Amino acid sequence: MVEAAKIVEQAQPDILDINFGCPVKRVAGKGAGAGMLQNIPKMLEITRAVVDAVKIPVTVKTRLGWDADNKIIVDLAEQLQDCGIAALTIHGRTRAQMYTGEADWTLIGEVKNNPRMHIPIIGNGDVTSAQRCKECFDRYGVDAVMIGRASFGRPWIFKEIKHFLETGEELPPLSFDWCMDVLRQEVVDSVNLLDERRGILHVRRHLAASPLFKGIPNFKETRIAMLRAETQEELFRIFETITPRV
Ligand SMILES: Cc1cc2nc3c(=O)[nH]c(=O)nc-3n(C[C@H](O)[C@H](O)[C@H](O)COP(=O)(O)O)c2cc1C
């Protein structure tokens, strides 16, 4: 991890985030990701070593604990803070929950309200609307909210939330064409960042999840074509045929 951290630092990122939250079997089952929740001394040793190895801020993301009987996050947060991390993101689920059930924000709130904690606490899990996001800030006092799945195919959720937090009012509905342009840009960015094949593969999941296409009559065939397209050009040609629901 120290060696990897030094390589990462050479790319000059703003921060280095250690992922102690990944629940998938091939990761957590090997003791990595959320698997580290079963070996706290090692998690702390790694965190301390990484913090000491680089000059950039090191942050950590993790879950409430390994399972329902081991929701250790309140103590763990203090221990991680003592390692010198700059901020902590907490996904309000255990490893055993994977992505099932509901995220439990009460423990995230407990961490934030622990008077011994002074680093920023970022809450995460099941935030799918501007209203819910505001509620999380108000009720649990977190310094920031992290949004994952709700942004799939809906990257404008951040714009919607920003507007709601700033004005207390919902952003007027965004036009279909504007949203399509955002999705096009997402495809272009993804292809530029990866390459055409991997970029297209990456955005498929986002297109499949996009609420923009929900309720369009007879969309099934277009959807299948969209998820099969292999080039940016093919995908954009299909985009041209899509008309918004009325
Ligand atoms: C497909 C997928 C990939 C993810 N990859 C990462 C990752 O690389 N690093 C990470 O910290 N979290 C990752 N997560 C977890 C999310 O960041 C987030 O903690 C989780 O989805 C809960 O938040 P949400 O309810 O807003 O989605 C991933 C989640 C999904 C569904």
UniProtKB/TrEMBL annotation:
Q: Which residues form the signal peptide?
A: none
Q: What are the recorded GO MF terms, alphabetically?
A: flavin adenine dinucleotide binding; RNA binding; tRNA dihydrouridine synthase activity
Q: Report whether Nucleotide-binding shows up as a keyword of the record.
A: no
Q: Which InterPro entries match?
A: Aldolase_TIM (IPR013785), DUS-like_FMN-bd (IPR035587), tRNA-dHydroUridine_Synthase_C (IPR024036), tRNA_hU_synthase_CS (IPR018517)
Key words of the record: Flavoprotein, FMN, NADP, Oxidoreductase, tRNA processing
Report the residue ranges that make up the DUS-like FMN-binding domain in this protein.
1-232
PROSITE patterns membership: UPF0034 (PS01136)
State the needed cofactors, names only: FMN
The UniProt transmembrane annotation reads none
Tell me which PANTHER family the record gives. Answer: TRNA-DIHYDROURIDINE(47) SYNTHASE [NAD(P)(+)]-LIKE
Q: What is this protein called?
A: tRNA dihydrouridine synthase B
The record lists the organism as: Bacteroides reticulotermitis JCM 10512
